[in-house]
Design goal:
The protein is mainly alpha-helical and 156 residues long. It contains three helices and three strands; from the N terminus they run E-E-E-H-H-H. A three-stranded antiparallel beta sheet has the order 1-2-3.
């Protein structure tokens, strides 16, 4: 029966002892410190600059699994960004409705110069009231059951 050997790729980003290098050239005194490596090994307690090839052949390499919460954290960040952008869009819609309401009300006052313009003025004021109420009480999100398809996605 043949023996099978399994190899593990030793990479610095999976090692328990590797960290990103600090980029301070002012205190670099030895050739080892000025190698310009992206990684440093902290196994001995001091930060020693290493390359990926050094890490691949290192006998002190230990696997550090990725945190279980990393995926949930990434999903939470994506959800927060989506919710933040939806709030900004909703705020923009509300502000534009308030501007339209002010414009309609101002046009109604400007046109109110003759008795024949009263119906037009009342229509403008009703349009201003409708736009103002839509800005205050409007729901621009889709319903979760799909009955209303709004501008924004439903809240989770």
């Amino acid at each position: 029966m043949a023996d099978a050997a399994s190899t593990t790729l030793h990479t610095p980003w999976d090692c328990r002892w590797s960290r990103f290098a600090r980029r301070t050239r002012a205190r670099a005194t030895t050739r080892e410190q000025t190698r310009g490596s992206l990684w440093e090994c902290v196994h001995t307690g001091s930060r020693v600059a290493i390359t990926e090839a050094d890490c691949a052949s290192c006998p002190l390499w230990e696997y550090q699994p990725t945190g279980e919460g990393a995926l949930e954290q990434a999903k939470a960040c994506a959800h927060a960004a989506k919710d933040r952008s939806a709030r900004q869009i909703e705020g923009g819609i509300r502000v534009s409705l308030f501007v339209i309401a002010v414009t309609f009300a101002a046009c109604g006052f400007i046109v109110l110069t003759e008795p024949l313009a009263v119906p037009f003025t009342i229509t403008m004021w009703l349009g201003a009231a409708m736009s103002f109420m839509a800005g205050v009480f409007g729901n621009f999100r889709s319903h979760a059951d799909g009955t209303f398809r709004g501008f924004l996605p439903p809240r989770a």
